[in-house]
Specification:
alpha+beta
Length: 809
Amino acid sequence: MTMTTPGLHLRRLARTPLFTGVVLATLAVTIGAVVAVFAVVDRVLISPLPYPDPDRLLSIGFTAPGLGYDEVPFSIGVFEHVREGQRVFDGMALYDEAKVGVSGDAEPVRVDAAVVTAAFFRTLGVRPVAGRFFAPEEGRPGGEPVVVLSENAWSRRFGRDPAVLDRPLRVDGVAHRVVGIAPREVMLPSEDTELWKPLIVDPADLQPGQLVYPALARLAEGTDLEAATAELGRLLYQVDDRFPEVFSPGLLEQAGFAPRVLPLKEVVVGEAEAPMLVVLATAVLLLLIGCANVANLFLVRFERRRDEVGVRMALGADRGALLRHFLAESLLLTLAGAVIGGALGIAAVRAAADLAPPSIPGLAQVGVGAPTLALVAGLTLVVGGLLALAPVWLATRHEVASLLRGATTGRPAGVRVGNGLIVAQVALALVLLVGAGLMVRSFRSLVAVGPGFTAENALVLPIELPAAEYPPARRVELWRQLRERLAAVPGVEAVGGVHNIPFGLVRQNSSLAIEDHPTEPGELPPMAEYQYIDGGYHEALGIPVIEGRTLRDTDGGAGYRAVVVDEAFARRWWPGQSALGKRIRNDLYDDWSVIVGVVGSVRFTSLKDEPRPAVYFPLNDSGPRAAELPTTLNMVLRTGDEPSRLIPAVLRAVRELAPTLPLERPRPLAALIGRSMVHTTATSVLLTAAALAALLLATVGIYAVVAYVTARRTREIGLRTALGATPGGVRWLVVRQGAAVVAIGLAVGLAAAIPATRFIASLLFGVDRLDPTTWAAGVLGLGLVAVAACYLPAWRASRIAPMDALRPE
């Protein structure tokens, strides 16, 4: 026989542009989806820590269920106590996120930064790109102010100029010397961190009660997670002996304090793990549906090439020759589909990196590497080989004469294979449809939850004051002047300031004292969300007043100290009575503050979480704690129009008042809420897109198989018509048999979706994973589309003339 060449196969494929185009599009979309998703999963889940020996890196902290906290970080005092006494770690470090103002030759800006103890970089196991990291003395009181820059900041802001080292850089108004450049792989506390400052540890003031710092540690050789947990637990219950003024006897036991030791990888991945696994499973299901769809198309193509296959076999072609022939053709298609799909996957990966939400760590560094390329190569060979085997297997099951005559006896194997593929496609598509429906309903339920304030038409402007330039009295005066300036901007209806904006990155929970509910010795003190606000905050955010009034600018002065609490706090401590006139204070050393108002409760971190009790202290507090007033304030502007339009005018107003103040671009308040929903939103969008793609592929596959089966029965249909069958009866015959196969697929899909939806149960909100409405909509929608796909070949079959169908006989 004459050997076929790639050029011959290309010309043959070019003569069937519809078949070739559909197969290429299907393979490209499905392979591209797998490439993109696998690259993301590899970076985010499999290899999220680009550090030496990442399995030895731990996140350490505590839990305190008695206080209602699953995670309790370290204080400097507790950290020093553990660091000095531990015997299982090669290194330990504290770190915390920060925003700092950087000024120099260019316009001052606020950047993402971190404060870390001196052993931070050594614990991670990284080396500087240039210069050095922190020395121990630089983390002590009186140490020289120094910073380490990120490699990205060094490249973007300084053009990788080596002269940056030892050059002074003004950070929060103080000159700091740049001593080193950290490599790109350092992504703690976040990928956006541009510089690190030493965390000052003062042995004379360790602040043991300020439990605000996350900690990491590197396990020593020969130790394990269990040993680290036991060691941390041993040292934990010595803390009250070292700091009895903060940790009274029995407090740790009553609060249920216990060590919390986890692999750092688990903590870094965090809540991104469940959405990533769901997206990976979705891509695999889509690939299986796509492969089934392509196999169906090859069945139809085989039906049209039966005569050619029969001639080849009659001329002596054996199974091996046929396999080589079809393998060359299928590999050409799958290779082309893989190349296009790879390009689509790379484009999707780059888009994901550009649009990476901060809550999915590592996404901004995703790239297509060797593992992903190997996956593409493997998919090409597997899919191409399977597609080649199907027609060869079908052809060699029949006699040459039957292939040439176009007739077979019994139920053709191709029909059974096609029906099996329909069942698989319908079942897999139903799983995706149900999953997408549940996520969409969950998203709608989440959006319907009120945060406790009005986010629409609100703009947030973060302001960070350098502490060295703005002592407490000057801070209060600047806040007042700033609010007056911003209130005068055309379009601004209300202005207020708050230290920790709801749905921001920072929370402040602390204990307090209640006058008529004194804490007994050994009893846990009341806990609440602390907020420092100015007089216009509640009005600007649209938080309703339940009782009394909001704060005034005079409430924090020396003459009268007032405080506002939320409804959850009032209901917890004074159920059935008014909270007005009751007195609370920050701690034992503070003056009493009188409750003058009760406002609505606010969700501070997530729409899924119930509101926590909160207290609002005046920003102009002149009491004993005045020196601790925050240097950060988020100005909230209530506008009468689209808030983004006011950004230039808002920035101008601030620049006129404080030209040298580093600024961060204002953001709509609604964007902060959207960021908290990123996992639900992204999973809903991706699942919906995959479900729609699966629906389209299943429709094409069902049509292909029904058309194939109908073509096999042309003579039978002609004979039925000749014997009196009506066109409607023929259509019903074809649709009924196709619908029966679809019904089996739906049943299999229902059985598969029940366990499959467990994987997204943790992502759902306000809807049960077995919600009957969602399931019924998925079954009904897919069933109607499938029946519609059966109808077109049925309509064509009903138009077959008996003489045309019986003429070959």
